[in-house]
Design brief:
The protein starts with a helix and ends with a strand. The chain has a single domain, classed as Rossmann fold (3-Layer(aba) Sandwich). The protein is built from eleven helices and seven strands. It is of the alpha/beta class. Helix 5 (74-87) links the parallel strand 2 (66-71) and strand 3 (91-95). Strands 3-2-1-4-5-7-6 form a seven-stranded mixed β-sheet, sandwiched between helices.
């Protein structure tokens, strides 16, 4: 396998580790913001790319959309199907790759991705796929962590302790940079707008939050598994605790830290 396919196999393993469904509940607010910006009308056809456990797909279906949720990770799709069943909504969940969407051109009225497509390694290819499957007059809404925000800095902290990735694997947090995203959607048929929002990471303490991430969050689990045998995890963990402390707005020993993300709204010309 090549570098890109090796990376994707690693992504499948990473996001299947831990307990991402519990993490997904903590970022539901951002998914709700994306669904709001989609401005869904009943019976519109929506594709939610890298749907995870259905954070955006389920509320969109509740609004009357006909939803397809796509993800690279079978374990997450199983959780999404169970969640949709519990919510009493019908959603077609499909295993697939954001860089090669298994749908015809101009298939959807709405296309979304919440902290998902950002992890596809070749950004222009993934963005092109979002546009390709969108019908004339469609709306595409994507959320990505900003590089300077808490979670963008979390990935930077991991990167300081891990081997540098090959150049063909682009950093996911670039989806939180307006200049970068504007280049991805540089097409006269597209009108691109941005909104910066935050959600709050709240826990009983910064150290407790990092300990929780060691158990449930794929990127943290993966970094620990790589660094601990080399005796390097303690230093990385200390840097993570320090990061959360720097962003922490609480003064009572708890954690209350804003995590900034960028919402991109792309309007596809009806011509």
């Amino acid at each position: 396998m090549g570098v890109v396919e090796d990376f994707k196999q690693g992504q499948r393993r990473m996001w299947a580790s831990g307990d991402f469904p519990s993490v997904a509940t903590l970022i539901q607010e951002a998914s709700d913001a994306v669904v709001e910006r989609l401005e869904i009308e009943p019976r519109q056809e929506l594709l939610d790319v890298a749907t995870g456990t259905g954070n955006a797909a389920v509320p969109a279906a509740r609004l009357g959309a006909r939803v397809v949720g796509l993800d690279l990770v079978p374990k997450l799709l199983d959780a999404a199907r169970a969640r949709a069943a519990a919510a009493g909504v019908e959603i077609d969940f499909v295993e697939g790759d954001a860089e090669a969407l298994p749908f015809e051109d101009a298939s959807f009225d709405r296309v979304s991705s919440v902290f998902g497509v950002m992890f596809a390694p070749r950004h222009a290819q993934a963005a092109g796929e979002l546009v390709r499957v969108a019908r004339p007059g469609a709306r595409i809404v994507v959320a990505g962590w900003t590089p300077e925000g808490l979670n963008g800095q979390m990935f930077k902290t991991f990167g300081a302790h891990m081997p540098q990735p090959p150049p063909e694997l682009q950093s996911p947090v670039l989806w939180g940079s307006e200049d970068h995203v504007r280049e991805l959607f540089d097409d006269p048929r597209l009108e691109v707008g941005f909104e910066r929002r935050t959600l709050t990471v709240a826990w009983e303490s910064t150290d407790g939050w990092v300990s929780h991430c060691e158990e449930v969050l794929g990127p943290t689990i993966t970094a620990k598994a790589a660094l601990e045998p080399q005796g390097r995890w303690d230093a990385a963990r200390a840097d993570l605790v320090d990061l959360y402390e720097r962003y922490n707005e609480a003064d009572d020993g708890t954690l209350n830290a804003p995590a900034e993300y960028l919402v991109t709204v792309v309007e596809v010309s009806g011509d």
